[in-house]
Write a structure and sequence with these properties.
Largest sheet: 5 strands, parallel
Mean pLDDT: 92
Low-confidence stretches: none
Distance between the termini: 56 Å
Number of helices: 12
Structural class: alpha/beta
Amino acid sequence: MPIPLKDFRVKKGQKIDLHQWSTLVKPFYHSTNDFQDILAKYIDQMRRLQNILYAHNKYALLLIFQAMDAAGKDSAIKHVMSGVNPQGCQVFSFKHPSTEELEHDFLWRTTRCLPERGRIGIFNRSYYEEVLVVRVHPEILKAQNIPDDAVAQKSVWQQRYHSIVDLEGHLHRNGTRILKFFLHISKEEQRQRFLTRLDDPSKNWKFSGADIQERGFWKDYMKAYAQCLENTSTDASPWHVVPADDKHNAQLIISQAIIEALTALHMDYPKMSREQRKEIDIIRRQLNGERTK
């Protein structure tokens, strides 16, 4: 049964109160084995569609993942994209900007990493950090070497929303389709996952005191995310608020959204011209002739 993606999609201009968006919904699977079977079928579909995307070579797909810590971005990327051809997929994780990146506008470092036609690009965090983390910690603006009057303006965030929407509109017009996923986790679920991570030697290495410090700004982040979603979700490049307390459910929602986006492109393998077919016939005869020698 198809997942009702419209229930998780933010409409253009929609006012957002994240308290009204659930972090946990009824599972779209019956058991762990059922989940694995459904995900495997989705991965097979994605693999087939990725092959066509690559051969068609007119579109690119950009997947953007944003979330609070421990919401499952890494595991979603790992499991959902496990079956795609790595030659046609590019993954970039964006953390603190470098000195070189701070010498450019806030979109520069991510724009350099956009996927080529025929490929799928994945941003694990993205230019949206500039209206999320930077909004929660506005002192970061001072390190970005932008004009003082721009920092002082109350409209700086609206200006950044406009820049992002303009960029995504430009990309859409030129063949890049963008899907944006906000993995919506509850504060209690994050607490439980932090505790599990602390007890797991394979995961506790990536835990730091900064994670706890950021947790202290939870309300500020929820406000920043809400305003970001309502200002940057468009018909062409929508945000999906994915309930993330159940990682399996989140991965199925993300998988179906990707499949629907690729299917909607109505792509096909390139058709050969008459001259190309003649050339193939000649090559086939040559190869068949080698077998008789």
